[in-house]
Amino acid sequence: MSQIVIVNGSPRKNGNCVALTGAMKAKLEAAGNDVTVFNINELENYKACQACMACKKSGKCVRKDDMTPVIDAVKEADGIIVATPTYFGHATAQYRAFEDRMYCCIGANFALQIPEGKKCGVIVTCGGGVDGAVAMSKQIEGVMGGFFKMNLLGTYVFSEAAAGKPAKDDADAIAAAEKIAEAF
Ligand SMILES: Cc1cc2nc3c(=O)[nH]c(=O)nc-3n(C[C@H](O)[C@H](O)[C@H](O)COP(=O)(O)O)c2cc1C
Questions:
Q1: Distance from Cα 127 to the centre of ligand 1, integer Å
Q2: 3-8 and 151-159 beta bridge pairing
Q3: Residue 128: pLDDT over 90
Q4: What CATH architecture does domain 3-182 belong to?
Q5: Predicted pLDDT of residue 96
Q6: 48: CA distance to ligand 1 center in Å?
Q7: Ligand 1: which residue has its CA nearest to atom 23?
Q8: How many whole angstroms from 91 Cα to the centroid of ligand 1?
Q9: Among 13, 86, 139, 160, residue to substitute to test ligand 1 (most atoms within 8 Å of Cβ)
Q10: What is the Cα–Cα distance from 98 to 103, expressed in whole angstroms?
Q11: With 90 as the cut, is the pLDDT of residue 81 above it?
Q12: Are the C-beta atoms of residues 83 and 15 closer than 8 Å to each other?
């Protein structure tokens, strides 16, 4: 059994990220994995990284708030699935806050504070053309694969415009997300 963490940067409770990661969660649990979901939008008390650089001495974040258990869970997990909509070509503010707080996993001299090779799946959603979303997904892959040396198992970009329906009603989209889950 593996510990898998899903980090959802969408504020929507029933949106596309939730539909896709929900299908992945079901697949992972059916395969005997333990899955924990963090909806960043539901955290009540957190700040983005304050760039205090304390983590560059201690390898730990000195901030203790609602983001702390999210980062701790990612540190402990065997695998992570990250999901975010595209907002003006970027990940959401919620996702970006999570991503920057992961900076504490890089210590002095850029030494990684987490084991290399954590499994990682990436889900990006968008409303229009996929170009911006694909570019953003590559950026996320660069952070997770490049900085955090995760093992990128797959990325799926969902476009509402291309699908013509929400992800929850799109069997092909659900199947594409499930395929990534099956790789864990
Ligand atoms: C503030 C805001 C900005 C957005 N910017 C873009 C964008 O730049 N490109 C795009 O294709 N869709 C954009 N969208 C649409 C969302 O990315 C799209 O609805 C997405 O599927 C939502 O995902 P979710 O249901 O998982 O929350 C934007 C939506 C909002 C609310």
A1: 5
A2: unpaired
A3: yes
A4: 3-Layer(aba) Sandwich (3.40)
A5: 98
A6: 21
A7: 85
A8: 9
A9: 86
A10: 9
A11: yes
A12: no
Cα–ligand 1 centroid distance for 171 (angstroms): 21
3-state secondary structure (DSSP) of residue 149: coil
For residue 9, give both structure tokens: 């940067």
Strand boundaries in 33-114, DSSP class E: 34-39, 79-87, 90-91
Inform me whether the pLDDT recorded for 150 exceeds 90. Answer: yes
- Cβ < 6 A, ligand 1 pocket: 10, 12, 15-17, 85-89, 125-128, 132-133, 160
Taking residues 84-109, report their average pLDDT: 97
**Domain ranges across the chain:** 3-182
Q: Is 90 exceeded by the pLDDT of residue 7? A: yes
In this model, does residue 59 exceed pLDDT 90? no
87-105 as b/e: b if 16+ CB within 10 A: beeebbebbbbbbbbbebb
As a whole-number percent, the residues of the chain with pLDDT over 90 amount to 97
DSSP strand pairing (34-39 vs 119-126): unpaired
Instruction: Tell me the one-letter amino acid at 73.
Output: A
| Averaged pLDDT of the chain | 97
Q: What's the confidence (pLDDT) of residue 1?
A: 86
Of the candidates 5, 14, 4, 2, the residue with the CA atom closest to the CA atom of residue 125: 14
- In this structure, what token pair is assigned to residue 135? 């570019």
Residue nearest to atom 7 of ligand 1 (CA): 88
Q: Are strands 151-159 and 119-126 parallel, antiparallel or unpaired?
A: parallel
